[in-house]
Every structure is written in C-alpha cells, then in structure tokens.
Amino acid sequence: MPVDLSPDATEAEAYAAADAWVREHLPADVLKAALGAEWPEVAAFVADPERSTPWFAALGDAGLSSPTWPCEHGGLGLSAASAGAVTEAVTQYRVGRTMADFVGLALAGPTIIAHGTAAQKERFLGPLARGEHRWCQLFSEPGAGSDLAGLSTRAEQQADGTWVVNGQKVWSSFAHLSDFGLLMARTDPSLPKHRGITYFLVDMTTPGVEARPLRQMTGHAEFNEVFLTEVELPADAVLGELNGGWAVAITTLMQERNGLTGRPAVGDGKADELLRRAHGNGSLEEPVLRDRLLRMLVEERALQMTTLRAYAEAGRGAAGAEGSVRKLVNAQLEEEAGALAAEVDPLTALSWPAGGAVPAPVEEFLAMKTTSIAGGTSEIQRNIIAERLLGLPKDPDPEKDKPFSERPRTS
Amino acid sequence: MTGETGATASEPAGADDLVEFAWTDEHADLRQAVRRLMATRAPLDRARAVADSGERHDADLWRTMAEQLGLQGLAVPEEHGGFGGTLVDVALVAEEMGTVLHGGPFLPTAVLAPAVLVPLAEHDGEAAALLGRIAAGATTVAVAVAEGRHAWAPGLVTTRATGAPGSERLTGRKDLVLDGADADEVLVLATTDSGPAWFRLDTTDGPRRERCATLDLTRPAATLHLDDVPARRLGGPDTDGAAVADRAALVASVVLAAEQVGGAAEVVRRTAEYVTTRRQFGRPVGSFQGVKHRLADAAVRAEMARSAAYWAAFQRPGTDDFELGALVARSHCSEAFLQTAKDGIQLHGGIGFTWEHDMHLFLRRARLDATLLGDAAAARERLLAHALPDLAPSATEVA
Prior knowledge:
The structure holds 2 protein chains of 2 kinds. By secondary structure, chain A is an alpha+beta fold. Chain A folds into 3 domains: about 10-95, no CATH class; about 135-250, Beta Barrel (Butyryl-CoA Dehydrogenase, subunit A, domain 2); about 260-375, no CATH class. Chain A has helices at about 10-25, 30-35, 40-45, 50-60, 80-90, 100-115, 120-130, 245-260, 270-280, 285-315, 320-345, 345-350, 360-365, 380-390; strands spanning about 135-140, 155, 165-175, 180-185, 195-205, 210-215, 225-235, 240. The relative contact order of chain A is 0.09. In chain A, the strands form 2 sheets. A 4-stranded mixed beta sheet of chain A has the order 1-4-5-8. Chain A has a 4-stranded antiparallel beta sheet with strand order 2-3-7-6, with no helix packed on it. Helices cover about 45% and strands about 10% of the residues of chain A. In chain A, helix 8 crosses helix 11. Chain B is of the alpha+beta class. Chain B has 3 domains: about 25-140, Butyryl-Coa Dehydrogenase, subunit A, domain 1, CATH 1.10.540; about 140-240, Butyryl-CoA Dehydrogenase, subunit A, domain 2; about 240-395, Butyryl-CoA Dehydrogenase, subunit A, domain 3, CATH 1.20.140.10. Helix content of chain B is about 50%, strand content about 15%. Chain B has helices at about 25-40, 45-55, 60-70, 85-100, 105-120, 125-135, 240-275, 290-315, 320-350, 360-370, 375-385; strands spanning about 140-145, 160, 170-180, 185-190, 195-200, 210, 220-235, 280, 285. In chain B, the strands form 2 sheets. In chain B, strands 1, 2, 3, 4, 5, 6 and 7 form a 7-stranded mixed beta sheet that branches. Chain B has a two-stranded antiparallel ribbon with strand order 8-9. Classes of the chains: A alpha+beta, B alpha+beta.
C-alpha cells in the first residue's frame, strides 16, 4: 500500500509523510535504537535477513524505496527534489536499502522504466522495489573498459528466437550475490561497434553463468569476473531494440553518474566528519592540514550546491552530461577524503590490533580510488565534458565506423 | 554582530520563501537586458579602450544604466528610492558585467556603498539621503577600508577619528580604494574610542587622493592620504562599524562571486572557441586530451562556482546559511576564476601572452577579485565554525 502522497507533493510534505510512515511501521525496538543513535543495533537489524526482508518489502510496497518511479510501477511519481526528501527521511534512521542494491534501484529500475516492455516492467519493477531481487551490471570486459563499445561477448540468436551467450565480464559488483544482471552483448559484428550491441536482462541462475569474486586492493571482494558459457536466454530477455543496446546503456550510465553524488542537500558531509576527527585528536592545529580540510569542506559544499542546482534545473529525473561534472568532482573529493583520513590519523591508519576490525581511516584510504575508476574513469568524464558541454572535437577512434569484425586484434 | 545590522541592501521582502535556484522570468529578463546593454555599449573592447585612454568610465553608459535599467538602484531598498532588488538580481547583473570585465564605479557605488549604507540609514538621515542619490544615478561613492596589507579587515583598521561628534577629523592612509580618486563621495572606516565606525569624508577639504596604477586595468583605484581631514560620522551612536563592514563584505562577496562566475565562464567559452579552430599536427588542438582535459577541469570549476555563488544569493542575509554560502563562494569562486584565467592563457599559447590579446585582462581582474573582500584562506578559516559549531567562538571573529 503506497503512502498517501500526491506526485506534486513538496519536499516538506514528502519528508513528513515518509518520516511518519517509518515511525509507524519500523519495529519498535529498532525505532528506539535509531532514536537513541544506537547504530550497531540498527545495523544488526538491517544485516539480519529474517528481520530486514519483511521490512524492505513493506518499505517497497509503501513506494519509499523508489519514490521517483511512476505510481503504476510501485513508485510515488515524485520530483527528484521531493524524492530526495523521502530518501533523507528514511536514511536518518539508517534503515534504507544498502549500496548492494544501488545497481537495482538506481540503474536497473530507471533503465527498465525507460526501455522495457509492459511485461518486463510488470515482472521486474515490483520485486525490485520490494527488495526481492538484487541486480548487477555485466558491462565491462577484460578487453573493453573505457572503450565499452569494444565489448566482444557474443549473443547469437537461435532459430526459435532464443539466444546463446558466450563471453567474459569483469568488475561486476555484487554479481556473486545477484539474482539478475544487466548484460551488454554483441549481436551483429558486421556493424560498427556502437551499432551491433544488444542489451539483455539475465537471470543469474541460468546454467553457464559463473561469478567469481575478485579480491580488491581494499581486501574486500565486492566485484567479480563473470564467465558466460553457452548461456541460453529467452527471446524476451532483450531490453530495447535489437542492436540498439548502446542507447539503453547510455540511460544506465547516466543514471550511474547522476546517482553517485548523493541526495540534493547542503549540509554535513565527509569533510565535516574529518574536521571533527582532526579536532578530536588535535591535528586540526596543524595549519597546512587544517587548510586542506577546509578546502575540502568548500569543495564538498560546492558539490552539494551543484547537485541541488542540477535537481532544481532539470526537473523530474532528467540526467545529462552534467552528471559527468558531478561524478568527476565527487571522485576528486573521495580521493582527497581518503588521503586526508590517513593524514588526520596516521598511526591508526598504519597499524591496528591483529584480528580486530579494520579502522575507518584504513578503509577510507584504500577505497579512495574507487569512484575515479568505477562507472567511467575520470579521464572518460573529462572527455564527455569537453565534447558534450564544450563542443570540443571527439577523440579520434579509427575503429568507430568500421564493422566490428574488421577491427585489428591485439590479444 | 549587533542587532543594528539586521537589514541589508539585498534583503528582499518575503525572503523566507526563497527556494534555491528557483529562477523566474524576471531573472531571465533582467539578465537579457543587461547582456544586451553590455553587448552594444560595453563589450570587452570598450573596457580595454577606456583603460588605454586612462578614462575613468563611460559617463553616457552610466546614465543609461540608471535611466533605462535602474541598475544603480537595484541594491537600494524601495524606502530609500531604489528598486529593492534581491541579491539574486544584483548577482545576475554582476555576472553579465563580469563576462565583459565591465569596471568603473559600478561595484563601489552600486554594490559596496549600499551594503554599508543600508544598516547605517536606519539611524541616520544623511546615509538614507545618500542611498537615494545612488539609486538615482546622481552620485558615485567610494568605500575605503583597506590599509597596508589588509584588504578588508575591519578590526585592524588604524585610520583614526578624533574630535567631537559632528566635527570629527580623520588621520591615516587608505589603500586600494576603488574609484577613490574620482568618486563624488567617500565612505571611510576608521577607529574611534568606542571601536570602528563609518565616516563620510568631506571631499572638498583636504584629503589627498592619489590616483594609482592598477593591476586590473579596468578598475581604477586610489590611495587616500588623510591628514587630519574633516569627516562626519554615519549611523547611530551605538552602531558597530566593524559589524556593518563585515556584513557588507559578505553581501558583496556574493555579488563579486557572481562576477567571478561571469569571468571564468567567459574564459572557458573563449578558450573552447579558440582550441576548436587553432590547428597543429594536422588537427584542432582541442582534440588533444592534454588540452581537452585542462579545459574540462576549468568548465567544472566554473559550474561549481556558479552553484556556489547563486546558492548563496538565494539565502536570506543574516542567517548562518547566508554566511556559509558567502564564505564558500568567496573561497571557491576566487580560486576558480584565478586558475581558469591562468589556464585560459596557457591554452591560447603564445598569442595568449601578448598585450593585444584579452586573456591577461581576465587574469588581472581575477587577481583583484581574489583579494578585494578578504582572501580565500581567510574565508575558509571562518568556515571552521560552521563545520564545528562547538569550537571556541573566536574562530568566527574577523581579524
């Protein structure tokens, strides 16, 4: 049952409705813990599937996990700004869906809404909103990173209309835990590389799909290489047009750039947290470090203001090359935050009790290069900004207009 | 900060209802009108011609600005004969002027002076009358705060006021006074036994106004030598002159930030045009990533600067958010414009290093703007109190 909220609700109305709903429906012990800022207890609730599964289902039924989606597909049809207020209301209790659901809620959902058939929307959107399905991206390949359109995973259509897929994907976050995947595969190698790709929705339990977790430099294993061997897909696994997968992928990629800079609000952020730590351990008195922290504060606030402006000026759910601006700045900020975390507290970042939890500055330092590579490197974002916002010439690509099958093979 | 500084030139009626980035048709109309006026009467060539000839400004344009668009009265409240525009309105005008490096008396007369005079006018008919003359385009006003190495540090002013109320005399030296050699009126911040206060200089009697050579060729400035010269104190007996100066600097920071946005965006636009047409190695230089990426970074800085300047302009003066916005804008926009101006010259290569090319005019303006109201590092230091409100209050005080 969706919360009673008009699609034209203001931010304040949306916030109030979401806040009231959470207070009414969140199990009493968890609400009490959240109100008392006892966050480990709240985190235990979210991590316990027995308890969090019904909670996420209820949250989804209320429309609060997918507030921008159309009402007929389990959303609330809200503007980006009002949807941001809903998300803010839920996240203040730290009981919203986790980053492991980012691909599903932020990428798969909007891409299916934009390009899916009625049957695909019916089948996937409800369960996505309710947290029943986890999704991953099957885009990058060992031979196709920044040059994503150079992918060579092959999908061949059979006489009965079904597809057989062979290839290898990489950097697929949470693929080993996912129920469905967003797959880009080559369906016509006689066409130039951007024009012979089709976009598929893949059931990850299909025989021949094998996800192998890769250990990252952080020590965690969130992303995977995924092997696709004689994977049979039904005809209705195609999302969008045959050989029209690049346009569908652009929808996904723009959502990704747009979604990474957080909710549209100006306030407390990573720089504030680092300033508090520096104040706490006395390192704030060091003038050079102090100014670097304050410089980061300025840039983070300016990015928040830019996100707010993007939402205000773009209206409902629009995303464009402007998202690349924010993604690039966000990547620079995360890198600086990771570097500063280690400088504010260098000894904690360098050694800690064996067997104990890894301290935050270590995690932050090691994760600092995540965003500048994931979702399109900062170099690719600069190309997009230069070409689309400034109108500079496109990077030369000798393979662009040739049939994919005629490209020189390097490996 | 005292209660007396509660109103500013730019505080709009119903400001509680301001929503960030809620652009209106009136905003668009104002921007178009100023853009058209600048394009026809004050293009960048004109700024250079005025500077080359040593002219102070284009007096005909000044009259047109007052008579046709009322720009001098935009920051003056209606009760004092102005148009009572919002800070967003004034920022839009400044941005458009920034793209053509328009200089002359506009910033000191129509931005700095109203920001100082509006709180003073609450207790002082003379200040109110001056506001009316500014709004009518009938007078020009210089604002003298800077001394020595301090651009805008109200608490460190050493120019001294002596004598009985109503017949004070000022002694000291004021530097970097924009339009200081020619303005009809000069407002001076000086110390008294009860702290800093604002004075209106008697320009007919005594002050030596030394016209200076300036790095920014488009904004004339002077040093004022005040040797026991007559002046009249403005405001009420309890007016905290330092607080008025501080608040004025925050308001003006937002306007100046918008000017910096205009300058930075124009450098990006001109440079993008140049690198698309200039060819080397058989292709446009703008197709090389070394060039593309530097310019992309500049465009990103300019976009962020625009967000920061206008987010601040949409806040209500006097609030914490307003101060935060003004300080973020001063820090980010100052450095963004300066870096972008440097990159613009770099990407133009040798031609960008010539006197005839316009790029250095932007660099010169960027350097002035980055200092005029206090530098970026000082703004950041004040932001500490916003991130750590529990910290000792001394962090928020102006030096």
